[in-house]
């Protein structure tokens, strides 16, 4: 049985300062610090459970770059960041007690398909089945075989070096 988080600790001031600075510098995505939002991100497809301090949902690569620039400032270097895709990992890779950077809410677009050269440009939150549906008319598919292909994001697959138990890639 998964242990239950028994208390809802408040968000630490440094995290609140980071989120405030993020918004002041033009972050266009969403931020979440409510217990409900944090609890939703405290689990994945593993047995682990870690309650994060906050969740951010970037809308663009500019938002991601801003997150990285701000995180590199000396006052924020003690913060912990973890990217998150579909939350389908089985080893707790998308969990932390710091700030979760959820790439699936907004950064889920297929930007370009180039069938002549055999490549595609996508954002990290694109789901594997979504990509394969878009590639099907061109006779292409993304090969890794995983049971969570209707939820697993490409960014998450890359981040966790995961491609399904039966995949030979």
Describe what this molecule looks like in 3D:
The protein is α/β, with parallel strands linked by helices and 169 residues long. It has two domains: 13-102, 2-Layer Sandwich (Uridine Diphospho-n-acetylenolpyruvylglucosamine Reductase, domain 2), CATH 3.30.43; 110-160, no CATH class. The protein is built from five helices and six strands, in the order αβαβαββββαα. The chain has helices at 13-24, 35-40, 61-71, 128-135, 154-160, and strands at residues 30-32, 54-57, 81-84, 99-102, 110-114, 119-122. A four-stranded mixed sheet has the order 1-2-4-3. Strands 5-6 form a two-stranded antiparallel ribbon. The longest helix has 12 residues, at 13-24. The radius of gyration is 17 Å and the shape is globular. It starts with 12 loop residues before the first helix and ends in a 9-residue tail after the last helix. This is FAD-binding oxidoreductase. Pfam families: FAD_binding_4. Residues 48-169 form the FAD-binding PCMH-type domain. Keywords: FAD, Flavoprotein. InterPro entries: FAD-bd_PCMH, FAD-bd_PCMH-like_sf, FAD-bd_PCMH_sub2, Oxid_FAD_bind_N.
